Amino acid sequence: xxxxxxxxxEEMSRKGADLIGAQVLVKPNCLLGLATGSTPIGLYAELxxxxxxxSLDFSKVRSVNxxxxxxxxxxxxxxxxxxxxxxxxxxxxxxxxxxxxPNGLAEDLAQEGLAYDAYIAQQGxxxxxxxxxGHNGHIGFNExxxxxxxxxxxxxxxESTITANARLFASIDEVPTKAITMGMRSIMAAKKIxxxxxxxxxxxxxxQAFFGPVTPKCPASLLQLHPDVTVITDxxxx
Length: 238
Ligand code: GLP
Hints:
- The protein is α/β, with parallel strands linked by helices.
- 32% of the residues lie in helices and 17% in strands.
- It has helices at 9-26, 41-53, 80-89, 109-122, 159-165, 184-189, 203-211; strands at 2-5, 31-34, 62-65, 67-69, 99-100, 128-131, 153-156, 178-181, 192-197, 229-233.
- The protein has a 7-stranded parallel β-sheet, with helices on one face. The chain has a 3-stranded antiparallel β-sheet with strand order 4-8-7.
- Strand 9, helix 7 and strand 10 form a beta-alpha-beta unit.
- Helix 1 (9-26) packs across helix 2.
- The chain starts with a strand and ends in a 5-residue tail after the last strand.
- The structure holds 2-amino-2-deoxy-6-O-phosphono-alpha-D-glucopyranose.
- 2-amino-2-deoxy-6-O-phosphono-alpha-D-glucopyranose (GLP) is lined by residues 35-39, 66-67, 132-134, 140-141, 161, 165.
């Protein structure tokens, strides 16, 4: 586990972009696992800047996203499809067909989960997985539970996640109550993991995840068992 403590959100974003840029440089056709949420927005902006100035090439990069709300179409501006198009895919030279986000509109979500995991395996597995962390320790939408769930699956979002994400919707009633998320197996099988967290509101959960017990009550704690995790924060973790 490597911790990089930065002085600001901007520095965290630049250092995160450095790692992703390095991954793309050493393996131009790498499979990136991507995340949504407010935290990586600055990192994506930095990747876009580097791509547009010509120092970072996404033409061979492939990507898989962690999760999507159930019931939202890719055109809905609260969907994670829309988020990714808006913040990254439409602004860099990644071929659109190289990108994949779970389909929250799939009629058979269990089948969509199986197909998603099969796709990741067929692509050779994730080279670098980017993660944020929820206030309750969720990664992707793997919510606190009695067990870790391995496969891509449909989840009932917790009250705290619905409340936390309500800021992005017109009202809390519009926040979907279900999502489809990559499971812990695909995340843990990634060759490298980069987790970014900013703001003192995330300090306690980051400490709990990386220095507390490994438990499905805090899904991110499983990352303690991964051999190559870098955590970049803008707060102390001691
Ligand atoms: C969302 C996403 C996660 C994200 C988390 C934190 O629910 N599913 O992938 O890491 O919440 O979001 P934020 O970065 O906005 O705090």
